[in-house]
Amino acid sequence: MGSPHASSVEAVGLVRRFDGTAALDRVSLRIPENSFYCLLGPSGCGKTTLLRLIAGLDTPDEGRVLIGGRDHTATPAHRRPTNLVFQSGALFPHMSVRDNIDFGLRSAGVRGPRARERVEESLELVAMGEFADRMPQTLSGGQRQRVAIARSLVKRPDVLLLDEPLSALDLSLQLHMRRELKRWQQETGTTFVCVTHNQAEAMEMADEIAVMRAGRIEQAAAPEHLYEAPATRFVADFIGENNVFTGLAADRGGARADHVFFPGVDADLVSALAVRPERIRLVDPGAPESAGTARVVTVGFTGRTLRIGLTNESGRELLAELPAGTRVQAGDTVGLAFDPDAVVRIPARDTEAAA
Amino acid sequence: MRARRAAAALIAPGTAYLVLVFASIIALLLSYSARTEQTAALVATLDWGTWRSVLGDGYTWSVVGTTLRLGVTVSVLTVLIAYPLAWCIHTVRRGWQAAALLFVVFSPILVSVVVRTYGWAMLLRDGGPLGPLFEGWLYHEPGVVIALVHVELPFAVFPILASIRSVPADLGEAAADLGAGPLRRFTRVLLPLTVPGVLSGAQLVFALTISAFATPALLGGGRVTVLAQTIYQNIQLLQWPTAAAQAVILLVLALLVLSVFGLAARLVGGGRVTR
């Protein structure tokens, strides 16, 4: 709507303190228009605080919030071009589904047939048309969440903010709703900003993810990029499964950690190395390509792959994922091998790596 | 079965007390009101003479009118004052500030009714600190109203505060987020969800007001006569049957109004937060 950048969001040096501790510590971030953006991190990382600052439900101690290029830092929530879907849904218990959805339109002065049309339209979008006259208490958790999303989308916000929208749902419904959310984002052409602690959820839905920890953004990038090239040890650990090696020591043209040898790695330039489970191959312990030996402890079948739990002579536990049908069993002693490009170098500037 | 028996054992003392004291007094009142002469006999032959003279007396109805008017005025005013007060206590961040506010609201109950009432008399009298502002209020109905509102405020604040606290904070935030300004958030979300608290506060205040005796007697200056006073006067005159009939009228009035409130609460019951 309006300018081509109407639905972009920009945070500039946001600081928010609660009782002296910074929940957000100088966070800057640019969310592109019409994108599905996820704020991902463990609980207490500041992701919900950031979302509330964008929504206008809280005011920053420092910094600015720009929506569509305009400074909205001082705009109260009810005048912002954003709408928030609360974790609980926050449906009004004394209103029917239809009245809940109509509430925002009435607040904006939209009434009559046009309002009715828009209510029906958003009910159809979330496939809740037949529940229009029900009271929220009579709906299931998933249905309530759909209504909450419809109630926000009916306002046609420039930016839709979602606070852990799927966390209250059971797993199969979560998986379904991930695709639904993605579809609604594409159909409405609205910018979605979604807070979640579930990295699989963020990976599946987002065009871009900001990984947060302790009030700061660790790395903001596309899911593939976060997966292939984590910038910090935290991101390497948090996004997907990983084998992270620290305590590197220089050793004959490479580096060694936990009895695993990484040729061509300069131990002074990196703070940690990471190898994805699916990039590890199991070879004969004596093979020249073997970077170290380990004993197979567990073999788990997941359908397409086998998940192999390994322990090596330093007691280090490792995870490998191999195609189903690989002949391996618990008790085997194997060699670990991986291509040079499978080793992700985490730069030494990541001071947190020592922690 | 055992749980049932335990429950019965737990409510037994309360039930026994109520049956003995409350029910027997009601029975006695009914029995006394149905005779014209005071006799020591617990059961006498039915005689509707007292009822006929009480109900046929215009004075009774004017007293009933005053009692009801006082009840309605005081409950409406008390709720109007109590609601914003409860909201303030709810929104105060620091614990000690909320505790201080609650103490102030509670304070009238901690002071003896006689002290409190004479305090009001001193404030409102000619030459008193509030005398010029509330000229002519003392020993008239407004003086009685202002003093009753004062003492009954906590009985309205508590139910309203409890119902405000039961409304999840995110509902107000959701309303704001959907574009509702402060007024609309109050009228469309907070108020409908706290009607049960408002009703039970008003109910309590009303019941207390129509049975109040000391405050109207001391601050009414003989001009504000309520049922509780005529009952007292008739007992002083040893007119037990008349006093009993008036007490029954007071009881019926209270029950009638309380059941109206109960009905209203049922009608808005859909607004109750069930999460």
TrEMBL record, chain A:
User: What EC identifiers does the entry list?
Assistant: 7.6.2.9
InterPro entries recorded for this chain?
AAA+_ATPase, ABC_SmlMolc_Importer, ABC_transporter-like_ATP-bd, ABC_transporter-like_CS, Mo/tungstate-bd_C_term_dom, P-loop_NTPase, Transp-assoc_OB_typ2
Q: Name one GO molecular function term.
A: ATP hydrolysis activity
Organism domain of life: Bacteria
**GO CC list:** ATP-binding cassette (ABC) transporter complex
Q: Which PROSITE patterns did the record assign?
A: ABC_TRANSPORTER_1, ABC_TRANSPORTER_2
Keyword Transmembrane helix: yes or no?
no
Transmembrane intervals: none
Q: Which Gene3D superfamilies match?
A: 2.40.50.100, P-loop containing nucleotide triphosphate hydrolases
**Keywords carried by this UniProt record:** ATP-binding, Nucleotide-binding, Transport
Q: Which Pfam families match?
A: ABC_tran, TOBE_2
All residue ranges annotated as the ABC transporter domain in the record? 9-239
Write the protein's name: ABC-type quaternary amine transporter
TrEMBL record, chain B:
This protein's membrane topology, according to the annotation, is: Multi-pass membrane protein
Q: Does the keyword Membrane apply?
A: yes
Principal subcellular localization: membrane
Kindly list the biological process annotations in GO that this record carries.
transmembrane transport
Residue ranges occupied by any ABC transmembrane type-1 domain in the UniProt entry: 64-261
User: Where in or outside the cell?
Assistant: Cell membrane
Q: Which residues form the signal peptide?
A: none
The family note in this entry says: Belongs to the binding-protein-dependent transport system permease family. CysTW subfamily.
This protein is called what?
Answer: Putative spermidine/putrescine transport system permease protein
State the organism named in the record.
Answer: Nocardiopsis flavescens
UniProt lineage? Bacteria, Bacillati, Actinomycetota, Actinomycetes, Streptosporangiales
